[in-house]
Design goal:
about 0% strand; mainly alpha
C-alpha cells in the first residue's frame, strides 16, 4: 500500500510542478488564457505557481504531508470555485479539482498509517 501511495504522490507532484506551476512561471499561453477565462489578473500567475510548489513540497515530505494535503485541498477549492463561477465545462474543468483532491487524499491514506487510523475503510472487529 505504501508503495502505491508514494507512486500516486509522485504523479500528483509531477502534475502540480510540471503541468500546472511551470506554465505559470514561464507565462505560457495555457496559463495566461486560463486566467483570462476565470477573470483573474495575470499578475497572480507567479504567486499561484509558488503556492502550488509549496503545497507539493509539503505534501511530499512525510512530516508535513498532512499539512500539504490540507493546503492543497484549499487551493483546489479555490480552483473549483473559479471554474464554477464562469460556468466552465463541468466534467473536464470544474470537477478536475475534485478528482485531484480525491487522489491527494487517497495517496496520503495509502502512505500513512495515522491517516488510515482516522479514516478506516472498515471498523475494527467488523465482519470480514
Amino acid at each position: 500500500m505504501k508503495i502505491a501511495g508514494w507512486i500516486l504522490s509522485g504523479l500528483i507532484a509531477l502534475f502540480l510542478l510540471g503541468a500546472s506551476a511551470a506554465p505559470k512561471f514561464l507565462g505560457m499561453a495555457a496559463a495566461t488564457d486560463a486566467m483570462d477565462v476565470v477573470g483573474w489578473p495575470v499578475k497572480y500567475l507567479v504567486l499561484i505557481g509558488c503556492i502550488e510548489v509549496a503545497c507539493a513540497v509539503l505534501f511530499l515530505v512525510p512530516r508535513t504531508a498532512l499539512l500539504g494535503a490540507v493546503l492543497m485541498t484549499g487551493l483546489l477549492g479555490g480552483s473549483l470555485a473559479a471554474n464554477l463561477r464562469v460556468d466552465n465545462p463541468l466534467w473536464s474543468h470544474t470537477l478536475f479539482s475534485i478528482y485531484l483532491g480525491v487522489a491527494v487524499w487517497v495517496a496520503l491514506w495509502l502512505r500513512q498509517e495515522r491517516v488510515r487510523a482516522v479514516f478506516p475503510l472498515m471498523r475494527e472487529g467488523a465482519a470480514r
